[in-house]
Design goal:
- The complex is a heterodimer of chains A (about 325) and B (about 350).
- Chain A is of the alpha/beta class and about 325 residues long.
- Chain A is about 30% helix and about 25% strand.
- An eight-stranded mixed beta sheet of chain A has the order 7-8-9-3-10-11-13-12, sandwiched between helices. In chain A, strands 1, 2, 4, 5 and 6 form a five-stranded antiparallel beta sheet that branches.
- In chain A, β5 and β6 form a beta hairpin.
- By secondary structure, chain B is mainly α.
- Chain B folds into two domains: about 80 residues, no CATH class; about 230 residues, MetI-like (MetI-like fold), CATH 1.10.3720.
- Chain B is built from 13 helices and two strands.
- Chain B has a two-stranded antiparallel sheet.
- The longest helix of chain B has about 35 residues.
- The relative contact order of chain B is 0.14.
- The mean pLDDT of chain B is about 85.
- The chains are: A alpha/beta (about 325), B mainly alpha (about 350).
- The structure holds adenosine-5'-diphosphate, iron/sulfur cluster and magnesium ion (MG).
- The site of adenosine-5'-diphosphate has 14 residues of chain A, from β1, β2 and α1.
- The site of iron/sulfur cluster (SF4) has 13 residues of chain A, from loops.
Chain lengths: ~325, ~350
């Protein structure tokens, strides 16, 4: 099917946090693959483990309280779980770069934007300060910040929110990463600025050819961006499909409900948006059965006892559900 | 920036005048007077009246204050006061023939040298200790340094100083028991002269500097630790790590500057307090410093010394706070003065 090389292969990743209240089951055994140059969207309600799964891959969680288990997290054939810390540092910011949700707090307020862009250039590419300055100005121009050379000397507070996020993109792209992970990069921005950033990243990805993981809780954003979408729920992957299949033929009751709760772009008025009743499960509880069961309209007794595994429903379309949602009966 | 500094300095003037006024009035309002006793005998009322007249203490309060601030000449009176505006802090009421200016000129340098070294000690021990404790959070290093910090914070100077003397001066004989290694004339009015600045000077300084500086060091260590632990949870630290920087670089380049912002806040008052003298340490080590004179003068009702020293303390404090605000701007580019 897919002839591009697999660059990221996550096998049964489980991440837990030891807290005073008990063990938080943040990620509960997720597996997926990502190909070179592919754009993958990860969607799901806030708190479903999107960020934690990515931070686990980057080994950016503090251990303890975090505990990360996985059969393997292979990046270009190398298991990130096993490589020494120094090797992991060579991957971070160089092979895999990440941009975060809040542009207001993600840049260091006491260092200039230029300094922060130059850091990975000097670290991973060994550029001199002079060369790094030149390259940093190019990068700022690339992310469409005017007067780049002058703006290098600015501090983050002199940038607007949208500009800061673009500066974050410049930092992330500094070393031409193989994979860019964008963790809800537009959530904190105005709608128009959101759209600009999405377009910018799309265009840069096209030019530079990196793979992209775009995390969001907004199915609308991924529609125009991703080739493939993974839907997460309570630390599980519940559906994994090409974008058209997912939107046109959702197979998981949660995905279907999410799509029904989406405002429609064609503006059919009078249509009442559906809201998913109930709350996601408490992650402090050991997961038993299907995590969506308490909110699912198709629920059967079996669902409460056994959690369905993610299985291939059709080529490149995986679902974790006992039921065929077209018939409402067991598959 | 320059205009900001000028404006701040102009703002100091009313503050300092108010401090002077309140000290001046309140000291005179508390019961007792400078001439109540000579030794342990009380003086005959006639003598007291003469002395009061000589120092103008029989004048109404407003006139005394005016005389203190602008001088007797401007009031058209006979008298010795040349006025605060000409830098004259008046005559001591108890040390006959000595002016407050003379007393400060001999005692402040000792306090300032001691306090400055104590502050350096506090910074050079406190900041690294706090940083290490934060980085090794919840290890034995953290617990040991926390224990040491709490201990040094809670042991009063009054106890610590004699212990230091007993161990390091009397038992081990490493350092002299008391006195200060430098005497007037001072270099630039406050530094030890070059021939006095030798090993012996520093040997004299070690114990009092430790006695005075350790509790500040402990306080700064606690504050640095707390502040750094907060900063390392910030999003930009995660960003720095996601670039692949070494943990050491993340801390020194990305976290430390941010975490020092609250630490700088307490350095201003600590500086003023240390530099203008501390009674206990000066008394125990037999140093002729300003703190000792200040406390003695309160008991003696030596109004001029009290007012002069309080004013000086206020000046040091406002200047220290100005320096703190300037260093804020250096630490945090979001702060701008205009
Ligand atoms: N350091 C932590 N300690 C305890 N729980 C955490 C920690 N970080 C995240 N979690 C929990 O893990 C779950 C998943 O969080 P996250 O991945 O951030 O969600 P999201 O999908 O919104 O990105 C949440 O319930 C969150 O409360
Ligand atoms: S397994 Fe059962 S409860 Fe879970 S989503 Fe499918 S139908 Fe609903
Ligand atoms: Mg998140």
């Amino acid at each position: 099917m897919e002839d591009r090389e697999v660059i990221l292969d996550i096998q049964d990743l489980r991440t837990r946090f030891a807290t005073n209240e008990g063990l938080v089951h943040a990620v509960n055994g997720i597996s997926y693959q990502l190909h070179a140059g592919e754009t993958l969207g990860i969607v799901g309600e806030s708190g479903c483990g999107k960020s934690v799964s990515m931070l686990s891959v980057m080994r950016l969680l503090q251990v303890p309280p975090a505990k990360i288990l996985a059969d393997a997290i292979k990046f270009k054939g190398e298991d990130l779980m096993l490589i020494p810390r120094s090797e992991m540092r060579r991957v971070r910011g160089n092979e895999i770069a990440m941009i975060f949700q809040d542009p207001m707090t993600s840049l260091n307020p006491v260092l200039t934007v230029g300094f922060q862009i130059k850091e990975p250039l000097k670290l991973h590419m060994g550029l001199s300060d002079e060369d790094a300055t030149e390259r940093a100005a190019e990068l700022l121009t690339l992310v469409e910040i005017p007067d780049a050379e002058l703006r290098l000397n600015d501090y983050p507070h002199q940038f607007s929110g949208g500009m800061r996020q673009r500066a974050m993109v410049a930092i992330a792209l500094a070393c031409n990463p193989t994979l860019l992970i964008a963790d809800e990069p537009t959530t904190a921005l105005d709608v128009t600025i959101q759209a600009q950033l999405v377009d910018l990243v799309k265009q840069l990805q096209h030019e530079l050819g990196m793979a992209l993981i775009w995390i969001t809780h907004d199915l609308g954003v991924v529609a125009g961006l991703a080739e493939r979408v993974i839907v997460m729920y309570a630390g599980f992957v519940v559906e994994d499909a090409l974008v058209d299949d997912l939107y046109g033929n959702p197979r998981h009751p949660y995905t279907a409900a999410l799509l029904r709760s989406l405002p429609r772009m064609d503006g059919r008025s009078g249509e009442v948006l559906e809201v998913i009743e109930g709350l996601p499960p408490d992650l402090l509880d050991e997961p038993v059965g299907c995590p969506f069961a308490p909110r699912c309209s198709f629920v059967k007794d079996k669902c409460r006892e056994q959690n369905p595994l993610l299985e291939e429903f059709a080529p490149q379309h995986n679902v974790a559900c006992w039921i065929d949602i077209n018939t409402g009966e067991f598959k | 920036m320059f205009r900001y500094i000028i404006r701040r300095i102009l703002q100091f003037i009313p503050v300092l005048l108010a401090v002077t006024f309140f000290t001046f009035v309140m000291m005179r309002a508390i019961p007792g007077g400078p001439f109540d006793f000579a030794g342990d005998r009380s003086l005959p009322p006639q003598v007291v009246a003469n002395l009061n007249a000589r120092y103008h203490l029989d004048w109404p309060m407003w006139k005394q204050f005016l005389s203190y601030v602008v001088g007797d000449e401007m009031l058209g009176e006979e008298g010795s006061s040349r006025g605060l505006i000409r830098g004259d802090l008046g005559l001591s009421l108890r040390y006959r023939g000595q002016s407050v200016n003379d007393i400060i000129a001999t005692t402040l340098p000792v306090s300032a040298q001691l306090g400055f070294m104590a502050l350096l000690l506090a910074l050079f021990i406190g900041i690294p200790m706090g940083t290490i404790a934060a980085l090794k959070q919840n290890t034995w290093i953290d617990y040991t340094s926390t224990f040491a910090a709490v201990a040094f914070l809670s042991i009063p100077n009054l106890v610590l100083a004699p212990i230091l003397i007993w161990i390091f001066a009397l038992k081990l004989g490493w350092f002299p028991v008391a006195t200060w290694g430098a005497k007037p004339p001072y270099l630039w009015g406050f530094l030890p002269s070059l021939e006095q600045m030798n090993i012996d000077y520093f040997k004299h300084a070690v114990l009092p500097v430790f006695a005075l500086g350790t509790s500040s060091a402990a306080g700064i260590a606690r504050l640095t630790r707390a502040s750094l632990l907060q900063v390392v949870n910030e999003d930009y630290i995660r960003t720095a790590r996601s670039k692949g920087l070494r943990e050491r670089t993340v801390i020194i380049v990305h976290a430390l500057k941010n975490s020092l912002i609250p630490v700088v806040t307490i350095i201003g008052p600590a500086f003023a307090a240390l530099v203008t003298g501390t009674f206990v340490v000066e008394l125990i080590f037999g140093l002729n410093g300003m703190g000792k004179h200040f406390v003695n003068s309160i008991g003696n009702r030596d109004y001029s010394i009290i007012t002069g020293v309080t004013l000086l303390y206020a000046i040091v404090l406002v200047i220290a706070n100005l320096l703190v605000d300037i260093s804020y701007a250096w630490l945090d580019p979001r702060i701008r003065f205009d």
